[in-house]
Amino acid sequence: MNNKDGKPVTQTDKGRIVPMAVIFVVLCGCSFYMGIIFCSEKGSFESIYSQKSVESSKESSTSSLQIKYISFPECSADYQDYTPCTDPRRWRKFGSYRLTLLERHCPPKFERKECLVPPPDGYKPPIRWPKSRDECWYRNVPYDWINKQKSNQHWLKKEGEKFIFPGGGTMFPNGVGKYVDLMQDLIPEMKDGTIRTAIDTGCGVASWGGDLLDRGILTLSLAPRDNHEAQVQFALERGIPAILGVISTQRLPFPSNSFDMAHCSRCLIPWTEFGGVYLLEIHRILRPGGFWVLSGPPINYERRWRGWNTTVEAQRSDYEKLRELLTSLCFKMYKKKGDIAVWQKSPDNNCYNKLPRDTYPPKCDDSLEPDSAWYTPLRDCMVVPDPKFKKSGLSSISKWPERLHVTPERISMVYHGSDSTFKHDDSEWKKKVAYYKKLIPDLGTDKIRNVMDMNTLYGGFAAALIDDPVWVMNVVSSYASNSLPVVFDRGLIGTIHDWCEAFSTYPRTYDLLHLDGLFTAESHRCEMKNVLLEMDRILRPWGHAIFRESSYFTNAIETLGKGMRWECRKENTETGSDTQKVLVCQKKLWYSSNQGSR
């Protein structure tokens, strides 16, 4: 046989081809095998890596990380409401399709602001809870636009130096209290501890979530960053849990089967468009047996359509599309009265098992992790709850407040998670928090309201504060083992986040930030300076930060803290550990020098 040049192919050339093919097949097989091992042992590798990081830090505790003192400059006064990853100054770089410009778009490293965000001129310490639910200082959130546009709907009104929150809303002009009373009549589970966690999409100034706090329901209010309304900033200034976010092209930063109830009051989300992906996301984060409450278009369209600048035919069509989509997702109409309609997600998998193979939206395949929620694209498929978790549905999980201390079924998903480790963690945090209260006497009083645990495991820190006038945002690192399902199953709230980036909130929104070994776990990825500057941005003046950290890092944290005008003091842990210290810092109030005051 001849080759293309007309020369005969020698036996040596032919013999060379066979070994090369064999080697190629062997290499492919090895790569596939190693990939399986890596994926199946990912949690183990993460834990081992983290453990080695801790051990290496302990071994180095006789020395300490030294950082040169830096006096950080002030940002200009127009950065007083700066939100780095949802910055309106950068919107023009992103498209308006499906409002993708409102999603997280963090600046590249060379565009990061390494300066201190100033408060507005005339800023005062926030009004204390629970009075803050009804009023806040105008100078702390000086937005006139929302006052002019929404005062007729009784969202808020300006009186002298304060904003007053009458508790009104577009769909509850008679007050949020009466609106929730009607909702409780429709959903008795809101009264007996069955429903504990809720999410409010398009929350306004979070009056719905604020009212539910007195009824034992912890609501996370969600709204996008905007130029005028500052809905999330108003919510947090009032002491009501809230986070910046929008349902657009990416999943919300929560695991599957998290919330007991979801609510939309004229939030104007196009639920049936784009293959129903927005409603599919609500379906994903709602617990089996959980409730979805909708008021506003197209509910009660027969009476309301004239006020919606539309036609009765268009609203009837929208309602039928919505009902059809909900049915295909195994939701059932629970109750409906007036402007409020309530659907319930299937409490088990029987409905999903009966769906035909060609159903639309289809079921998601196994390649899509149900709990993946950090920059995970939305897909037009349905996440079916894992049938092996039979005690995580709303009808099976313990009622509040008992569920706070019951070991969640989904702890088996966490590396080394078990009933004993959960109980031990719960017990240890009670001791640690009691010690923190000695170090910071304000903790447990009305001087501290908004709290964040920056790298929680099971939510033990938040559980230990449950009887105090605080709420806690529990943050689980996007690079750690995902224990956030356990946090939600306890009846607490939280989010996934990567601390190499800015958090989804406004400046000056938290009274206390707590971290436990964050730099030990993440210093190989995230620069300490950037994490501390972000903490300064979201911490209120006179707010505190507690660092439970390896002795190796505490001196460096203290040095950088001084450069941010913090006052820090180093304390022993409650056990007197030599390898770990507690650093307590407090942010001071200062005003921008550009405004002529200090």
UniProtKB/TrEMBL annotation:
PROSITE patterns named in the record: PROKAR_LIPOPROTEIN
- GO BP annotation list: methylation
**InterPro entries tied to this protein:** Put_SAM_MeTrfase (IPR004159), SAM-dependent_MTases_sf (IPR029063)
Q: Which UniProt keywords apply?
A: Glycoprotein, Membrane, Methyltransferase, Signal-anchor, Transferase, Transmembrane, Transmembrane helix
- GO MF term set: methyltransferase activity
**Any stretches that span the bilayer, and where are they?**
20-38
The record ties this protein, via Pfam families, to: Methyltransf_29
Q: Give the record's membrane topology.
A: Single-pass type II membrane protein
* Entry's EC annotation: 2.1.1.-
UniProt cross-references to SUPFAM superfamilies, sorted A to Z: S-adenosyl-L-methionine-dependent methyltransferases (SSF53335)
The name this protein goes by in its record: Methyltransferase
Organism lineage reads as: Eukaryota, Viridiplantae, Streptophyta, Embryophyta, Tracheophyta
Q: Gene encoding this chain?
A: LOC106769232
